[in-house]
Amino acid sequence: MSTVNPTPSKLIVTDRGQPYEMVAEDRDAILHAIAHYDDSRAASIDALKIVQRRHGWVPDGAISVIGKLLNIPGSDVEGVATFYNRIYRQPVGRHVIAVCDSISCFLMGSDQIYGQLQTKLSIKPGQTTKDGRFTLLPICCLGACDRGPVLMVNDNTHFNISVESLDQLLEQYK
Known about the structure:
alpha+beta; Arc Repressor Mutant, subunit A; 7 helices; about 10% strand
């Protein structure tokens, strides 16, 4: 018979959030976004995008600040932030390459594109190049199954990508 010690010998407490001071311009933009909704919770994505636009990603400390502005728990804001794949919770490169890995794009050769990008950029999925230029991420579907393989760089969608076209594509993003 085993027993469980009800009082653990160690209690590990972590505080992911660094202090975060939101600039007035961002606070005002979030308050403006809230005014467009019946429920402030609906402005969560807008608020996260506003902070991300400033930093390129959403720092941990910003989550609770956004929650306070929206009058909702920080955990709800974190849930929204981690659900959406275009909200970045850690620093990313100047250009984020999202390669569609849906079955349609896979059948059209996206795995070769993904592999070639990893080789050319010397990074694995989720990593950023040493110069901070590119971050490589998978994305489940870009909704262009008839024009695959497809990838996105920042907000630009590129269709019918081939291994041969990658150098020219990457050169567009300095």
